[in-house]
Write a structure and sequence with these properties.
Number of strands: 2
Bound molecules: fe (ii) ion
Shape: globular
Number of helices: 7
Strand content: under 5%
CATH architecture: Orthogonal Bundle
Largest sheet: 2 strands, antiparallel
Structural class: mainly alpha
Distance between the termini: 16 Å
Radius of gyration: 15 Å
Length: about 160
């Protein structure tokens, strides 16, 4: 889970300045026991929900940093955007269909382990656009929503070609 899918970056390698900066943005979250439970759930074929969240967090961090945006909020929201601890295929939620329900549940769970700023909250709540009606409000949330789809597609393709 310390590797980013599609990159050679090892998040444990603190001689890598970007990996170190990313770690500093999320260190309280990445060691949180409740968040680490995401590793028990499959997101895309062989990719766990935790690995997917780390992928989205790191790519969002890099892109937002490149554009001079709030990369810390993007990194934190990336880790938290799919913070729901159930199998959506088996457990229906009272909040509605999966695309609508899980961002609301992720935001609620995130608020049990950290305070969210406006950008982080918007990133989490609106990441399923266009499957949910209200679009993202901030540049960071638009980027995160696009990167979520990119990572999901990449994870599926990588898994399909992984013979292990
Ligand atoms: Fe999601
Ligand atoms: Fe996601």
């Amino acid at each position: 889970m310390q590797k980013i899918i599609g990159l050679k970056v090892d998040l444990r390698d603190f001689s890598n300045a970007l990996a170190f900066e990313f770690y500093n943005c999320v260190k309280d979250l990445i060691s949180n026991k409740k968040l680490l439970e995401l590793d028990n759930f499959t997101q895309h074929i062989k990719t766990s929900r935790l690995q997917h969240s780390i992928n989205v967090a790191y790519y969002s961090f890099i892109v937002c940093k490149f554009f001079g945006l709030d990369y810390k909020s993007a990194a934190r929201a990336g880790l938290l955007h799919d913070f729901y601890l159930y199998d959506w295929r088996e457990q229906k939620q009272p909040e509605g269909y999966h695309a609508k329900a899980h961002p609301i549940i992720a935001k609620r769970n995130a608020q049990t382990i950290t305070n969210l700023n406006k950008i982080e909250e918007n990133c989490i709540l609106r990441h399923m656009c266009p499957l949910t009606p209200i679009p993202p409000k901030y540049a960071e949330s638009i980027i995160l929503s696009i990167i979520d789809k990119y990572c999901a597609s990449f994870e599926v393709i990588m898994n399909l070609f992984d013979k292990k």
